[in-house]
Write a structure and sequence with these properties.
mainly alpha, about 55% helix, 2 domains, globular, Fumarate Reductase Iron-sulfur Protein, Chain B, domain 2, binds iron/sulfur cluster
Length: about 190
């Protein structure tokens, strides 16, 4: 990926299969109908914090610029409020596209590496998939180790207080039969 303007692109930046693969999934079908009106970006309450607006994410996805889209913080900052989706004059499921992009990034490991949201999503999913229960303390520790290990020093005093008062446990809770849950998740991934 090259930083900067998206006006000048290089052929090697384009994955021609990318738009078709997104449009083949539920929610992505109408991507081609986008008229680039910007209503989605104007309606988005967190667009000011995004590196690429929702409108640009749609444009880059249609253009096959996968690396740019995958490196963007936008899908991960999306608050799933559906404002963009209900206001889009072409009925494009912008929020659902954000979910498709997040899912693709996790599957391919192409999410922004030290950006906490995808790391948190992956740690949470892996823990629930393995044990059927989330352990807040373990997820927080894994998140910190993978993104900003020094933040553990800052969080330690409050973490210890929460453990002492029984509001957070270090142990790992489990459901009775995690294999059953794994089978359900495997079936979902195959479908
Ligand atoms: S509101 Fe809909 S048509 Fe307009 S730019 Fe956003 S996705 Fe495209
Ligand atoms: S669903 Fe996401 S992209 Fe759409 S308006 Fe809400 S925060 Fe913005």
């Amino acid at each position: 990926m090259r930083k900067g303007s998206t006006h000048c692109r290089y052929a090697e930046d384009v994955n021609p299969a990318f738009p078709a693969e997104i449009m083949a999934q539920p929610g992505g079908e109408a991507l081609r109908d986008c008229i680039q009106c910007g209503t989605c970006s104007g309606a988005c309450p967190v667009a000011v914090h995004m590196d690429l607006t929702p409108r640009r994410i749609i444009a880059l996805t249609r253009a096959g610029l996968e690396a740019d889209v995958m490196a963007s913080s936008t899908p991960w900052l999306c608050a799933s409020c559906y404002e963009c989706q209900v206001r889009c004059p072409r009925e494009i499921k912008v929020t659902d596209v954000m979910y498709l992009l997040k899912r693709r990034a996790i599957e391919k490991g192409t999410y922004p590496k030290r950006f906490p949201v995808p790391v948190l999503a992956k740690a949470f999913y892996n823990m629930v998939a393995a044990h059927g229960r989330n352990s807040e303390a373990r997820v927080v520790i894994e998140l910190a180790l993978r993104t900003n290990p020094f933040s553990l020093l800052k969080m330690a005093p409050i973490g210890l207080k929460l453990i002492k008062t029984g509001r957070m446990a270090l142990g790992q809770e489990r459901i009775k039969d995690p294999k059953q849950l794994r089978a359900v998740l495997d079936a979902m991934e195959e479908s």
